Amino acid sequence: MLKELIKVIQQEQQTYKDPITEFLECLYVNYDFAGAQQKLIDCEQVILNDPFLGKRIEEGNFITVPLRDEFLENARLFIFETYCRIHRCIDIGMLAEKMNMTYDEAELWIKNLSSKLDAKIDSVTGTLIMTTNHVNVHQQIIESMKNLNARTYMLAKSLVDPGHAAAQQAAR
């Protein structure tokens, strides 16, 4: 779904731009991590000033903006995943800088993600070493064919029995 969103952003970049779409463009189209960081700061301001996205909740002495925190966490994850796909050995200090975190925050954040990562943290050198996981080309083709087969079956079924397809859409 993200790939389709990126295609739409590329097609419509002449007619519509905002910091959020520019952030996605910097990260997934241009692989411009410095630009993505700048756009992330702009995105934070957009969310804080937006009456729908930046709704403030006041509880006692605390004022929270739930979508801001969630957006920033997911944006950091996007930056991290994209950067890790490109590089094999990553300096944690430099990664912390790219994600607007301190070194300790970045190291803790990476440790919390370690269950999802195929990586090792070298505490002595302060680096994150990504292990490459090569998927067999034949296995990729088989998985693609399974997905294609399932989609073809659903398409054929909806053509043969349009009432069933409408009921299935209503159930979702």
TrEMBL record:
Any GO CC annotation of this UniProt entry:
eukaryotic translation initiation factor 3 complex
Q: Which Pfam families does the record cross-reference, listed alphabetically? A: PCI
Keyword Cytoplasm among UniProt keywords: yes
- According to the record, the segments passing through the membrane are none
Every copy of the PCI domain together lies at 1-137
Q: Which UniProt keywords apply?
A: Cytoplasm, Initiation factor, Protein biosynthesis
What name goes with this protein? PCI domain-containing protein
Which organism is this protein's natural source?
A: Lolium multiflorum (Italian ryegrass)
